[in-house]
Design goal:
Strand content: under 5%
Helix content: 55-70%
Structural class: mainly alpha
Shape: flat
Number of helices: 3
Order of helices and strands: HHH
Length: 90
């Protein structure tokens, strides 16, 4: 069966989650289906920083227009990702 997965509706949460996943994958924290679990993941800190910078732009441009939950989501995501970049040693 070649059924397509349903596409979730566009939302602020999905946008933040998508950029977070990009950063985590760039830091080697996420494995994609089909990747060899024994192979060391490729790390691209510059690409991770770009995704984090994109989130920071979204945070800045939406300031004052977010619900408390959305504000907390983007702030916590940025804090965690920035910490992970530091952990990566760059």
């Amino acid at each position: 069966d070649n059924q397509e997965l349903p596409i979730p509706p566009a939302s602020f949460e999905l946008l933040v989650f998508s950029l977070r996943m990009q950063a985590e994958q760039s830091l080697g924290l996420l494995r994609m289906p089909g990747e060899d679990a024994n192979e060391k993941p490729e790390v691209n800190v510059a690409l991770a920083r770009h995704a984090i910078d994109m989130l920071a732009v979204i945070e800045e441009k939406t300031r004052g227009n977010l619900s408390m939950e959305e504000k907390r989501l983007i702030e916590n995501t940025l804090t965690e990702l920035r910490f992970r970049v530091i952990q990566a040693g760059n």
